[in-house]
Design goal:
The complex is a heterodimer of chains A (545) and B (445). With 545 residues, chain A is of the alpha+beta class. Chain A contains nine helices and 30 strands. With 445 residues, chain B is an alpha+beta fold. Chain B folds into two domains: 207 residues, PmbA/TldD superfamily (PmbA/TldD fold, 2-Layer Sandwich), CATH 3.30.2290.10; 230 residues, no CATH class. In chain B, strand 4 and strand 5 form a beta hairpin. The chains are: A alpha+beta (545), B alpha+beta (445).
């Protein structure tokens, strides 16, 4: 029955966190030697020629080497150090107007040529069931080019001991500050991706990503109560320098309730706050349900943007290709065609951007060889565009692809995935404290928590990490048991203020699933602190047994 | 990639273990083939076949362990993986909670293989999609679905003499059928070890019928309702809760099974008397491997909930030793006892209620009470005086499976249901539950 390989990271809240694992373990020192570009070009040409000779009208080949390291710790113990590598070649073709795909881990010319011929054979078989021929938006070949994530420190060069000691020091800080239990992890990713196509492109890319989640749990055995607080770092498209935790990158949350982080992260400081605040949650006031003005920090907003704007504006969902799994979308083509569909208030401007430095989605070119760019999704509150790949561009009258194609492995076929989708900062000068000053009865929410949304992205319910009541313009006591429920269009039309550019920062998702068989992608979402008026808040406390 | 036999994998395991001077060595080999076909908008979108095999090797020096995996099986590759595991073990800090490899186990074979499933070919997959697409077209409906089959071999071995090898097969089919105007949607899921128990036509017809019946949905006020929950509406909720039967979490005070003042709630009556849930690797419908791949311990039949009482918790090797409990292989399936009553009979006995086909996007809101939120989807109906009256709009719920299993009024016949996000193969009956908490309406179809 449908199962993937998972790294089981136990001990987080109830049950366990399942993290997909790709590839084979390798020693750290082997990670630093990339495959030579010349070798990759020769291999790519073998595939392109074999596919063309077999009858393909188009072919692209992706040679991938995916390197990961995961370190998991629990309290003062290192539980696991895992290095993985996966390398191979994926060939996609169009023949008789239909797609075909085949992949091999055997990087010999014979095997790659065979995969190309297999892909053509599959395309020919699929073409018999095809009702409409695949139409690719044009891409001009770029010749031999390269792109790399602009990192300052390579995680592969940092000794395991140093990284493990940092995580243990963070756990100790959390335990000393009041946590009963701590867990911290470090995910480090390097994707060496080579793309070539019959359009005349040979693109060599070196992509780096990191994430270091931390979890604190405080237990009061006398009352049989426990509460957790998750770290406020964000997964990034950066090197190990994200862990520098520079003073200039620290941001004071509204009312000074906690420290937040912009371009680098102080893991130990945040772990200490996790321990302290998890303990404080044990005695926090339970929220009274009702309508509140919500002031949402960027550490919370990223997930709301992801679920309520990112997913509904994926064109493959809108068209029905994800109907059996991830769902469809309320943001249908007829609404977009009116050019009047009011997705949100006039101050709401949401854009897609695959070039934002430090973001998870930033690459030079997508997995169809399309140069990455920035474009509007919602302009002055109106739905103006979607996220499209080459074969979808003509459906929304675009002359070129948006560059949204991605595959999570050389062995997976590329398809439409979400680019970074962000809320533009407010145009007028406004700080989070000034925003709070305008609120009579509200809640300030920091960090992302539980999230659930329906299959067409209308009705959602979100939690958070930290909740503070706002009374007559002042941040008050910590609250617990908070979740808000709303409808996407109503919610974005209730947006009443957005802080200025100085408060804008990225959050992101490291494990965004879509497709059958399921593929995992990473994506960032930026925003400033944002306010939504009159949102329905429920109390989630329950008694059992 | 060759499909490895027991003889092949035994030879590989013995070779790897003989090459190391580490204190202990553990080897796992898993592989096989997975075929699939995906369709949407009444046309096939992708189809594929993946063949692969992976060997994992873990070695330990004292309390320092390293793990490596590889998918090539020549002697050089096997040795490379072993040496990497040895290097990582030397680099890794000592883990005070490290537990040595288990001693020799007896594994009694379970029912996990079907030759018919192993013989599935591309033609069969295409035909499965074709049934669904053609029947949907005839009814002016739009079909999207996914069929996947796999045939695998699974081997475990360690330097204390543990060895197990078993083959397994499975098919999974899901299909969503929508009306052209998007006002109706139906869904079906079928899972089986033996494909001869799968009928693509029957399954597609269920989704088609639900799509046709679900148009013109009326809104019902959110609130507490008597509900009839089909297995796909409860499997994720129950699976989620059972995933939290971890002894360590309970003993440490961070679980709904923690006891006030310390300890766990083993033996307490937390659920309705009618609730019986057990795990049995030898079950004829949802058999699983006779061992737990993480610990290499043999699985046993375990009552998890007996007559509403918590009857077993899941212990890791470390926690079992610390608490002086005998460790057993972690369960791989969950079976909830039921009756012979059909869903139709449950409906006939209901004066007013809601029939829920499926729940979706389920997330934990509060681990303290296992409060879960999610939505109904693909076939939600209002029941009045023992009959389905009309389709209704979907709801968001906020409910704990502990509360749900306390509010049971009637239980139906168990059915095989594989979870989307839970780790178990399951048999779950339809059930009638009072006071199920719907908190808001959704416009989604």
């Amino acid at each position: 029955m449908e199962r993937r390989a998972f790294l089981n990271i136990s001990g987080i809240a109830l049950g366990s966190m399942l993290v997909p694992v790709f590839g084979n373990a390798i020693a750290a020192e082997e990670l630093l030697n990339p495959l030579a570009a010349k070798f990759k070009k020769t291999l790519a040409d073998v595939a392109l020629n074999a596919a063309t000779e077999a009858g393909a009208s188009y072919c692209d080949v992706r040679i991938g080497r995916y390197l990961n390291q995961f370190i998991t710790t629990r309290d003062l113990n290192v539980e696991n150090v895992v290095n993985t590598e996966s390398a191979g070649v994926g060939v996609r073709v169009i023949c008789n107007g239909a797609y075909g795909f085949a992949a091999t881990s055997d990087m010999s010319p014979d095997s790659v040529a065979n995969a190309a011929r297999q892909a053509v054979a599959i395309a020919k078989a699929n073409s018999k069931l095809q009702t409409e021929a695949v139409r690719l938006a044009p891409v001009k070949g770029v010749g031999e080019v390269s792109w790399a994530t602009p990192i300052k420190k390579d995680w592969r060069a940092v000794p395991i001991k140093e990284k493990a000691e940092l995580l243990i020091a963070a756990n100790k800080a959390g335990l000393d500050a009041g946590a009963s239990f701590m867990q911290s992890l470090m995910f480090q990713v390097n994707q060496q991706k080579y793309f070539a196509s019959t359009d005349g492109s040979y693109i060599d890319q070196d992509v780096h990503r990191m994430w270091m989640p931390v979890f604190a749990t405080a237990v009061d055995k006398a009352t049989n109560k426990f509460r957790s607080r998750q770290g406020l770092s964000t997964p990034v498209g950066m090197g190990y320098e994200y862990l520098d935790g520079l003073a200039k990158d620290k941001v004071k949350a509204a009312g000074g309730v906690t420290t937040l982080y912009k371009n680098s992260y102080d893991l130990i400081e945040d772990a200490r706050a996790c321990g302290k605040q998890a303990k404080e949650k044990l005695t926090a006031k339970s929220v009274a349900p009702g309508k509140y003005d919500l002031v949402l920090s960027p550490e919370h907003m990223y997930l709301t943007i992801h679920e309520s704007v990112g997913h509904p504006t994926e064109l493959d969902r809108v068209l029905g290709y994800e109907a059996n799994y991830a769902g469809t979308s309320f943001a249908t083509l007829d609404k977009w065609e009116t050019k009047k569909f009011k997705y949100g208030a006039e101050r709401v401007n949401i854009f897609a951007d695959k070039t934002n430095p430090g973001s998870l989605g930033a690459v030079g070119y997508d997995d169809e060889g399309v140069k990455c760019k920035k474009w509007d999704i919602i302009k002055d509150g109106i739905l103006v565009n979607y996220q499209a790949t080459r074969d979808q561009a003509h459906i929304i009258n675009e002359k070129e692809s948006h560059g949204c194609s991605y595959a999570d492995s050389w062995s997976s076929v590329q398809f439409q995935r979400m680019p970074n989708i962000s809320l533009a900062a407010g145009k007028k000068k406004l700080s989070p404290d000034q925003m709070v000053a305008d609120v009579k009865k509200g809640i300030y929410i920091v960090g992302a928590g539980s999230f659930s949304i329906d299959q067409q992205r209308y009705n959602f319910q979100f939690g958070g990490q930290l909740f503070y009541e706002i009374n007559n313009g002042k941040i008050g006591a910590q609250l617990e048991d908070v979740a808000y429920q709303s409808n996407t269009q109503e919610f974005w039309n209730a947006c009443s203020a957005i802080c200025d550019e100085s408060d804008w920062r990225l959050g992101g998702s490291f494990f965004d699933g879509k497709g059958q068989p399921s593929q995992v992608s990473t994506v960032s979402h930026g925003s400033s602190t944002t306010r939504f008026n009159g949102i329905n808040v429920i109390n989630t406390a329950r008694k059992i047994g | 990639m060759k499909f490895l036999t027991q003889e092949d994998t035994k030879r590989i395991c013995d070779k790897v273990m003989s090459m190391t001077k580490a204190d202990e060595c553990i080897v796992t080999i898993n592989g096989g083939r997975t075929g699939n076909i995906r369709y949407a908008r009444n046309a096939v979108s992708t189809a594929g076949l993946v063949e692969n095999a992976t060997m994992g090797v873990a070695v330990a020096y004292g309390k320092k362990q390293g793990i490596a995996t590889i998918n090539e099986f020549d002697d050089k590759s096997l040795e490379k993986a072993l040496r990497i595991a040895e290097d990582l073990a030397k680099l890794a800090p000592e883990n005070p909670e490290f537990m040595p490899a288990v001693s020799k186990q007896q594994f009694r074979a379970t029912d996990t293989f079907s030759a018919k499933t192993a013989a599935i070919d591309p033609e069969f997959r295409a035909q499965t999609a074709a049934y669904s697409i053609e029947a949907s077209r005839k009814n002016k409906l739009v079909s999207a679905g996914f069929f996947t089959d796999n045939t695998s071999f699974n081997t475990i071995a360690n330097s204390n003499g543990v060895f197990g090898h078993q083959e397994a097969t499975g098919v999974d089919f899901t299909c969503t059928v929508r009306t052209e105007d998007g006002r109706g949607s139906g869904w079906v899921k079928r899972s089986a070890t033996d494909v001869s128990r799968f009928d693509a036509r029957e399954a597609s017809d269920v989704a088609i019928e639900k799509a046709l019946r679900s148009v013109e949905a009326k809104a019902l006020e959110p609130g507490r309702y008597t509900v009839i929950l089909k297995p796909a509406a409860t499997s994720e909720l129950i699976g989620f809760m059972l995933g939290g039967f971890d002894a360590r979490q309970a003993d440490e005070g961070r679980s709904f099974l923690s006891k006030k003042g310390g300890g766990n709630r083993m033996g307490e009556k937390l659920f309705d008397q009618q609730v019986n849930i057990w795990s049995d690797p030898w079950d004829k419908d949802v058999g699983v491997l006779p061992w737990d791949g993480n610990t290499m311990l043999a699985r046993e039949r375990m009552d998890m909930i007996k007559d509403g009482r918590v009857s077993a918790l899941d212990y890791s090797l470390f926690w079992a030793k610390k608490q002086g409990v005998r460790a057993i292989g972690s369960p791989g399936n969950m079976i909830m006892g039921g009756t012979s009553k059909s869903t139709q009979e449950l409906i006939a006995n209901t004066k007013k209620g809601v029939l829920v086909t499926r729940t979706w996007y389920i997330r934990l809101v509060d681990p303290q009470s296992v409060l879960l939120t999610g939505l109904t989807r693909d076939g939600t109906f209002y029941i009045e005086n023992g009959k389905i009256k009309h389709p209704i709009k979907n709801f968001r719920f906020n409910e704990s499976p502990v509360t749900m299993l306390n509010n049971i009024e009637e239980i139906g016949k168990p059915e095989i249901i594989a979870g989307d996000e839970v780790q178990y193969s399951m048999m779950i009956p339809a059930m009638k539950v009072r006071d199920f908490n719907f908190t808001s309406l959704s416009d989604a179809v």
